[in-house]
Specification:
The complex is a heterodimer of chains A (about 280) and B (about 180).
Chain A (H helix, E strand, L loop, with lengths): L1 E4 H15 L5 H11 L4 H20 L9 E9 L2 E4 L3 H12 L24 E7 L4 E8 L1 H4 L3 E5 L4 H16 L7 E8 L2 H11 L11 H15 L14 E9 L6 E8 L6 E4 L1
Parallel strand pairs in A: 1-3, 2-4, 7-8
Antiparallel strand pairs in A: 2-5, 5-10, 6-9, 7-9
Chain B lengths: L1 E4 L4 H6 L5 E10 L2 H12 L12 E3 L27 H6 L4 E4 L5 H10 L2 E4 L5 H5 L2 E8 L8 E15 L11
Parallel strand pairs in B: 1-2, 2-3, 3-4, 4-5
Antiparallel strand pairs in B: 2-7, 5-7, 6-7
Classes of the chains: A alpha/beta (about 280), B alpha/beta (about 180).
Amino acid sequence: MRTIDTRQIADCVASLAAKACLRLTDGCRAAVARARETEEGAARFALDVILENDETAQAEQIPVCQDTGVACVFIELGQEVYLTGMVLADAVNEGVRRAYRDIFRKSVCDPITRVNTGDNTPAHLHVEIVAGDRVTVSFLPKGFGSENMSALKMLTPAEGMRGALDFIVETVKNAGSRPCPPVVVGVGIGGTFDGCALAAKKALMRPVGSQNPREEVARLEREVLERINGLGIGPQGFGGKTTALAVQAEVIPTHIAGLPVAVNMQCHCVRFEKEVL
Amino acid sequence: MKKLRLPLSKEDAAALCAGESVLLTGTVFTARDCAHKRIFELLDADMVPPFPIKGAYIYYAGPCPAPEGMATGSCGPTTSARMNAYAPRLLRLGLGGMIGKGEMSEEVRRTLAETGSVYFAAIGGAGAFYAHAVKKSELVAFPDLLSEAVYRFEVEDFPAVVAIDSRGKSIYQRG
């Protein structure tokens, strides 16, 4: 058994959040830079601003986007780890509270009264028990301009992958200019209603542009990306070739009666940090 | 890029075409979901809104807190479509225009054409970039809304794209 005080996890969450909100991931920046070469007019202007914005944020250590998001925290907890100290969820919230205290926006509120919780807690926490004695903490600040455009559909096996592909493309088309394109499209296929949505969110934690190791899924990612970029929505909806930077799908087994498909939209501002304790 | 002063003169507004890039200088008021709701409650009760609507420009934004030495923290635009329900009435009350990101409803487009006002798109996600275009910031109303409060921003050379012009032509309508 390895003993870890959850205070260490609070520190880790605070430091990951502080880093994540100040920069685009390397994969995201590279994808935007590539897209910039293919666009012109207002679309190119938008991508130039996005790249300059990333440099400014890093140089001045201020958030790359004012929507510093809901704090999505994923923890892979080795089953040989013995946690001491405060309850894990409290430690995670403590880390979020600390990171968001000064120059990050507090964007979490009660859905009914709309009263702000004032410290960006609670975090959206997922814990998975895995083998070993390590703890992996991932931090994804998720903005809601794109989250709002996400969708889930319970398709039938008869509709099959053709129906799934159409649904993904339709979701991006309906979102139009609203989710801050060029987007990254996280897709979950299979599982249950909730598991499918979680798979879509996990897909967003992959490096931008990475392929699913399963060849038929990678093929699907490529096909959907091509169709989405044929829509012409373009950067910020100004028209152009780049509506999506990437389509990233995760597939999990489902029930013989069903075909759940979830589309989790991510704006061009992909922020993500991970650390192994 | 064309440099413009807010509020726009009738001639300036009329000369703008959807798709054009511009640099805006002048006063804008930040307001998003909750602030709009409160402004409408005040208007419905015949009370005075926190700033004169006539001739004003609303920036759909909820900034981050300001770091030391800066007027504001990161402050890119938020999704304008959520304010579709509010924009037409404000435009009819004389609102000069809006700055936000993404398409707005057909009703908003028609109202802009009717009132000769302009909707500008700032580049979404560019929070750090836009913080530098804000030279002064002052809290005007609803401090309990934190980042959703109304702030008066003095902006200088604030880059934007004409998204819907005063004739109702939209950059988001294609084909």
